Amino acid sequence: MEESQPEPPIEIFYRGIWYKRNPNAKQRAHRVYYSPPRESGYDDLHREIWRDNHPGEEIPKGWHIHHDDHDPFNNDPCNLVLRSPKDHGQEHKDEFAEARREHMDAIRPLAAEWHASDEGHAWHVEHGRRTWEDREPAARKVCESCHKEFDAWFADARYCSRTCINRARERKYLEAVICPVCGRTFKRDRYRKRPETCSPKCGWVLRKQREA
């Protein structure tokens, strides 16, 4: 079976200029819009047709010429409408929604693979290092645990160190419990029933007592 040959570029002659589009281009705009030669000073064909049929009017910077019937090959002057970027996006939101979803589904596994690679890891390490260059503390605060002043790198910081964070956690979540085997007191998360004993050794003794 012979492989299909790529479709050749298509040209249109308009007001002394050859405009071309490439049906095999990766970008949609290059596939459906006719472009003038580089450095010719002219715009895409549909925009030039709109200008020729609206003498004295200008296309505001950033605005689009919309194909009213959604056929980009229909450059009849009656089919060309001036639209703001926002309004033009609303015109095509349903048309391109599925294409955007398919694009994201296609690139998501590739992105995950790159981020997990050695190259991706090296990039994240370097990016993280750069984010801290010349960074200033967000605020001067008082630690809620030891009550000392410290430079907080984040506005919602409450403690000056990991030690103070652990102390605060102990006060909030840990409670004193008596080991049922040796009678020693140990600390355990008040919202859990494990461990039951102060050590693995006492835990082994407790299991033997229950088995007996």
Topology (elements, then pairings):
Blueprint: E1 10-14, E2 17-21, H1 28-32, H2 45-52, E3 64-67, E4 80-83, H3 85-116, H4 118-131, E5 139-142, E6 149-152, H5 162-173, E7 174-178, E8 185-189, H6 200-211
Antiparallel strand pairs: 1-2, 3-4, 5-6, 7-8
Please tell me about this protein's structure.
With 212 residues, the protein is α+β, with helices and mostly antiparallel strands. It has four domains: 10-83, no CATH class; 95-130, no CATH class; 136-173; 179-212, no CATH class. It is built from six helices and eight strands. The strands form four sheets. It has a two-stranded antiparallel sheet with strand order 1-2. β1 and β2 (17-21) form a beta hairpin. The protein starts with 9 loop residues before the first strand and ends with a helix. 8% of the residues are buried. The model has no long low-confidence stretch (mean pLDDT 91).
Overview in brief:
The protein has 212 residues and is α+β, with helices and mostly antiparallel strands. It has six helices and eight strands. The chain has four domains: 74 residues, no CATH class; 36 residues, no CATH class; 38 residues; 34 residues, no CATH class.
For the terminal residues, how far apart are their CA atoms? 79 Å
Rounded mean pLDDT is 91
What is the domain tally? 4
**Structural class label:** alpha+beta
Radius of gyration, Cα only, in angstroms?
Answer: 34 Å
- The best one-word shape is elongated
In total, how many beta strands?
A: 8
Helix and strand run: EEHHEEHHEEHEEH
Kindly state the percentage of residues in helix.
Answer: 25-40%
- Main beta sheet strand tally, sense and closure: 2 strands, antiparallel
Count up the helices: 6
Strand order in the largest sheet: 1-2
- As a percent range, the share of strand residues is 15-25%
Low-pLDDT runs of 5+ residues are: none
